[in-house]
Amino acid sequence: xxxxxxxxxxxxxxxxxxxxxxxxxxxxxxxxxxxxxxxxxxxxxxxxxxxxxxxxxxxxxxxxxxxxxxxxxxxxxxxxxxxxxxxxxxxxxxxxxxxxxxxxxxxxxxxxxxxxxxxxxxxxxxxxxxxxxxxxxxxxxxxxxxxxxxxxxxxxxxxxxxxxxxxxxxxxxxxxxxxxxxxxxxxxxxxxxxxxxxxxxxxxxxxxxxxxxxxxxxxxxxxxxxxxxxx
Length: 231
Fold this sequence. Notes:
20% of the residues lie in helices and 23% in strands. It is of the alpha+beta class. It has a six-stranded mixed beta sheet with strand order 10-11-12-13-14-15. A three-stranded antiparallel beta sheet has the order 5-9-8, with no helix packed on it. A two-stranded antiparallel ribbon has the order 1-2. About 6% of the residues have low confidence.
């Protein structure tokens, strides 16, 4: 991870800024920040699309390639700038989904490509069904509780935003599970805040990170155990 500031000049007002890219935890646990392309000119963001909100980043520790939030910088002149990232030129390694040792009959998980927030919820639901949870259904419309998926003995939340999941979100999900005697499972596209991950470890809440291929990766021991044993 490069934690040094990178000089960025606004193309509109020519102000100079020092930009430090935010770091999020890789699924292996190592902090990871997008590698900023020094010397490349930023471009103003005039409209947003789902695809443009993500960049591909490779972890130096484990070699895994994942989708990370596109670095942005707000200038005092009012422009929001897209900060260029060095491209990952090597072909991505094939994604391996852990196979449970006691479930030889389970076929390989077939992911659903994520293009929008609804796809993220659908992909998580397919994965939970693959793990063995029954009657997994999406909430229509999404309730104020934040519970996106329910099944027999299951409540799950899917965060499709570009912000790491907060401590409060993990605790609220766990509380819903306790009050309904259900297992709580959390999915996220942008990872988890450090205190949220620590609390999930204490509460034994499985945490997964989704990449844009729709393949969940376990983040903590509770998630690893769920993958290994199934529902």
